[in-house]
Each structure stands twice: as C-alpha cells, then as structure tokens.
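Students often ask why we bother encoding 3D structure as a string. The short answer is that it lets us treat folding as translation between two languages. Here is a chain of 136 residues written in the first language.
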Amino acid sequence: MTQFIPALLGGLLIGASAVGLLYWLGRIAGVSGILWGALSSARDTLWRWLFVAGLLMGAWLGHRLTGVAYPSPSELPLWQAILGGLVVGVGVKLGSGCTSGHGVCGIGRLSPRSIVATAVFMATGIVAVYLIRHVW
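And here it is in the second language, the structure alphabet:
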C-alpha cells in the first residue's frame, strides 16, 4: 500500500503531461521520438530539450525528496545494459514508437496500431522475464 500513492501520483502526472503536450503543442509524448528529434533536428528542438530536462530533473527531484534511487541500481554487467538499450532502440525504430508514445498516448487516442504495439511490448516483456528467470 505504501507504493500505491506515489505510483498513482506519478501516473496522474504522466497523463497530465501527455495531455498538456498534445493540447498546447499538438505533439505526442513519445519519449524516444522526442529525444530523437532533439538530437537529430535543427529546428523545433527547444521544447524537446526542455521535455528531456524535465524527465531528468523529475527523477533527480524524486530522489532528493525521498532518498530512494529510481530505478533501483541494476545488478547487470554494463555490457548487458548497453546491449539491452541498443536492442530496445532497434525495437523502437521498428515499432515506430516506444511504450510512452504507444502505451500512454496511442491507447488513449484508441489507435489500433498502438493497441497492438503495446500488446506486443507487454507479451515480449513477459516472455523475456520468464526466460531469464526460469529457463536460463
């Protein structure tokens, strides 16, 4: 129960941010697309960098206020974390978006493509966790 309130508040803030970004800028709050646009685009980048800075500042502020590291430090070797990040990056490009774009914003807009993409994300995650914890 002690995790419920912070999770609820976090979810409400994510939802409010996604709605605000769509309302005021007409943009979908897909984090990978926002970051990619900030790194690769010569124009329309200020809001993207502010969004990324807000993500980092939110994590830092959450840590400072609670003393808890989010996420918890990983026990994975660095090479596995880097490899996992690269695999996720390839998946994001193949799936035309990430969990925030499809899962938070796309499902909220009742996009069939986003509903399918999110179902695939979830199923793949479930299979991966099962294989890592119970097979390998």
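Translate back mentally: Residues 4-135 form one domain. Keep this in mind for the problem set.
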